[in-house]
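Structure tokens please, single chain.
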Amino acid sequence: MRARDLMVDYPTVALTDPAIDAARLLARSNLPGLIVVDDRGAPFAVLPGTQVLRLAVPVYIQDDPNLAAVIDEAAADVFLTELGERTVRDSLPPQPHELPVVDPDDTVLEVAALMARTRTPLVAVVDHGALLGAITLDRLLDRVLGA
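Here you go.
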């Protein structure tokens, strides 16, 4: 089985898109993350949903989870509004990580190894710089375990 056999069409976001819109897309489509594309439409990064949360949850609560328990429920329910005017670019880590990209001819083991190494549930399938689709961890496991 090759990457091309596992890939599906997948939504993308641009670096300049509002982070709140990315969060809405994640929730509405039940996605594990998003592929961030540059101005040319080429993959720039993979943004796991947890990175959007890291931007919305105040650092002092991330550092001391006990503080989350003292925030009243009404305030806790609207924490994503903290994203404000931040962009997808703001959600990305300051140090670029290995871009989780595979070739359509890569094997399922190569895809799995990349997911494991980069700790991402999503990889982009790229051919000569063009985004063809994506492979999610769910799809990979479904196909491998069903084979």
